[in-house]
Amino acid sequence: MENSTLVFCGSSEDFLAKELASQSTAENGGIAFRKPSLINANGTLIAVADRASSGEGWGYIELAIRRSADGGKSWTAVRPIASPPARETKASASSYASAFYVDPCMAVAPNGDVIMLVNFWPECKGPHNQQLLDKKKIPYAMCDDEMCPLIYDRDGNFYYILESGDVLDNHKNPTDYTVRRLGELYRRGEYMGNIYLNGAMGKNEFGAKTTFGAPLKAPKRGYVFMLKSTDNGVSWSEPKDITSMLLAETDGAYVGVTAGTGITTKDGRIVIPLYSEKGQSFSVFSIDNGESWHRMIRNPYCENSGEWQLVEAPDGTLLGLGTQKKYGKTPVSYSANGAKSWLKAKPTALLAPQCQKSVLQVGDYVLCSHPSGSDREDGVISVGKLRRVNGRFSHIDWFRDIVVNDGFFGYSCLAKLDDKTVGVLYESQPSSYIEFKTFKLEF
Description:
Layout: E1 3-10, H1 18-21, E2 29-30, E3 32-41, E4 44-52, E5 61-68, E6 79-82, E7 100-108, E8 114-121, E9 140-143, E10 146-152, E11 158-161, E12 166-168, E13 174-180, E14 184-187, E15 190-194, E16 223-229, E17 240-241, H2 243-246, E18 255-257, E19 260-261, E20 263-264, E21 270-276, E22 281-286, E23 309-312, E24 318-321, E25 328-335, E26 343-352, E27 358-362, E28 365-371, E29 379-389, E30 392-403, E31 412-418, E32 421-427, E33 433-440
Parallel strand pairs: 1-2, 7-19
Antiparallel strand pairs: 1-33, 3-4, 4-5, 5-6, 7-8, 8-16, 9-10, 10-11, 11-12, 12-13, 13-14, 14-15, 16-17, 18-21, 20-21, 21-22, 23-24, 24-25, 25-26, 27-28, 28-29, 29-30, 31-32, 32-33
């Protein structure tokens, strides 16, 4: 181990032990953190995580970033890059009067831009309370050759939001409404509230910008938003809803982005791993630096399990390592056509509990960070070598474990720093404590 740094640290003793919470500073802090994403963007390390008002997966959650120009030895001060609309924020899991972001997933586009896909939820508890979701409301519909988001009034009537922000009624007639930025509804120039919220403003313990719910509302379901940076993470675009580009009718009330990273293939294709409400894995890809996204609806899912991460073998085969439902071998799928379709492979001998894992390809080798115990504990980086089966790189022979830590080990993310060094950003506590370590590559 060359370097160890505390990158994100929660300040609340409700979610983190007192001696650990005391390490929270203006440089690394917030109330609570989870779900790290790490990427090497043209020599700059970018670390992003969920920064939340509580230790749960709902409530006020924004995306926080830190950057390093020296391989993780030092980091810029933590700051938000995307903040959700909220009408109330509390340092308590009982509060969910806010929209929220969760599970950032980054990739570097062929043109050097950093692309991030992330889950966005209106005011609700996301997948943690599906009774709050609008499973019967259609989120998008065609209007004069344009796929438009739909919003609904209290009587169930729907309205189209055009790309311009203008709102049409269900007969495609103009209305007095317009939608601006992230769900801000206006009527003849008067602000009417946010389409992703319900009700009046309440307490604001997080110090966020708060507002109130609009009379027209977006369906309560999971959305996928995209952010883009053209300067290695210094500045970011406004979040853009891309859900309609990748949604299948069979997905259910949400699709989930897997926290971690996507990949950019040798032929310039950005591939991001996702999963459906029923836990079915699938991927989406872009061939134009993230401007548009595609999914092969004829084969909408792969034979994998929930959250998964991807690598590209030297022959162009894509391998996806999934999440097992209980401690055991890791499920694997592969694609021979650039993520257009996926086939089931035999489970690999990599043993892990039910938890997201991160994978990284280095030449003929694959690195995988994961908990190695029967529960989320004892983090390792497993090293394996790709092997051809029936003429294709679809098998990994695991031969070494590099110990990362003892004790709790949750979500993690690997990044290659240079030809001889790899870094891992990982949760070393169930909430609010995310560390970074580097290791020399010795195969």
